[in-house]
Give the backbone structure.
Amino acid sequence: MPEDPNKKTLRDLLRVGFRHRLLLVAGAAFFALVALVGASWWPLKYTAMARFERRADPASEDITRGKSESFDALKLTLQNELIGTRAIEAAVDELEKARLLPPLPRGQDGSLTPEGRRVRQEIVRGLIDDLKVNFDVRSTEVDLVSVAFTDADPRLAQQLPNTLVVNYINRITERMVTNLTASRDFLQTKVTEASTRLTELTRKRIDFETKHAGMLPDNPGTLQQQVDMLSLEIDRLRRQQTLAKEKMDRLKLFVRPATVPEGAPASGASKGGTGAAAEAKPAPEAQDPVKMAIAAEQARAEYQKASAELARLEDQRLQYQRTLDESRTLMHMTENHPKIKALRKQIDDMAPQIAKSGERVAAAEKRLGEILGRETRGGVSVGSPAFDPGRREDMLLRDTLLTTELASAQSEYEITSGEIERLQKRLAALQDLQMQFGPVKQEYTQIQKEVNEQQAEVDRWQRRLTEVQMALAAEAAKHRTHLSQVELAQEQFRPSSPKLLYILALAIGGGLAFGAGLVFLTNTMDRSFTTTEEAAEYLSLPVFGTVGEILTARDQARLKLRRWALTPLVAVVVVAAIGLAGLNIVLWLNDRPAYEQWRHAPVSFVYTTVADKVAGLKDRM
């Protein structure tokens, strides 16, 4: 497929640009110079920004919790409060007093005239258009809000955002103090009401616990355990009571009804020696006092030994029985448990031993009674041969000791009986409570639940009250827990518009584009032939040869002058002009004090700047 002869390749374009290179450079330089010089008349704009933090309101935290609030609604609300018409009007009045805005027409009383209100309205509209509110940080706890304002006056650009932010914080702080004060009073009332209710419920619980003192276990198992323990204690006391009764009965056998006076006859004996006692025959041991004393000591030792053995067996059986009861009650062992079976067998094995020991005690008692002559059928009288007046003091001493021991056994029996009665009453009360455990426990649980819920409510209201009091104190002390200034707008030295980078990009890019456009236009309008191929194509004639341009000596001199003198001079002038225009723009945008010096004495400023640069280079070298 043949190529289109009218289609230009990249090589052709480069050839065209090289052929018109002077035009390209001249057009680019001209456009850059015009752009740099014309940028000096670009109106300057200064942008200042103030930031502040906006935190959650502790007074309404629980009220608004769970409610969804869209970000757009929050932003619109904040914009209306921060840069709304009323806020801007208040700021305009302050800036007018600071002479940052022209004075508004006012009447004699200082109020704005209709014309003044109209002018202020126009100013407010113009200021609102140049104000922007942005949420730099958005979270559930804190928001970082910035207020930016752009104006030709750098002082106004700085003061307006600061005035708006300060006024907004003061206004919201006053509102917060009012709201927090109302919230504090409300929460204080709630805390008082909840505390009063808690006091009533606590008194109700205390009365209930006092009425059912010691009868409110945590679970029925504990109550049953107390019943079982009381039953075991009553059984132990009953066995102890039985032993005391047996001891008391045995001691009564040895204690004489009354002490026989010296020289007095025995009961039932007459002066004449008549009566049952006189007719009674003495025991065989009574024939000899020495033998009788020895026999009495032996009988007494045998009796004491038998009594000690019986007491030991009774205590051992009691211990086995107690272990058995505890195993069944506390450990919940059944009758088939090996330990229960072993204890049962030990108790059963001890029954014959206890019976034999009891028989030995009874035989020893009877033997001792016969020897000492204490049987009621035939007691020994003072006139009998068994009565020894020399041993009368020993008999009295023994009777005193036996009487004391009898009184001790009787006291133990009475104390044990009283303790058994007390424990039985306690056991009956626990059994009654056990029968009605469900209703009582349910009522007590309900009271306890009400107390806990009321305590939680008191704590909740008290916690919110504490938060509100802390927030109120902080706001009143200007600690700004809800709103705080983070960064006020600073004095502006460099304009925000135009930007130096944009101007330089415009000058370079626009210059190249303008130069390329001139080359394209010139090449399009050029009707001359540049190559032999173009001449042959458009004239349809054969080409036999080419003749170069014939230059005279004068033409050659003119060309040399233009190449070596005029062209460098023009290039130097153009470069100098572009450099000075660029310097002017740089100083105009980045360094206003140096720009003022440059305007008033450009030569002196350039000389001083160059001299400083050269001196700096020398110092470095």
User: Anything to note?
Assistant: Confidence is low (pLDDT under 50) at residues 58-68, 258-287, 374-390.
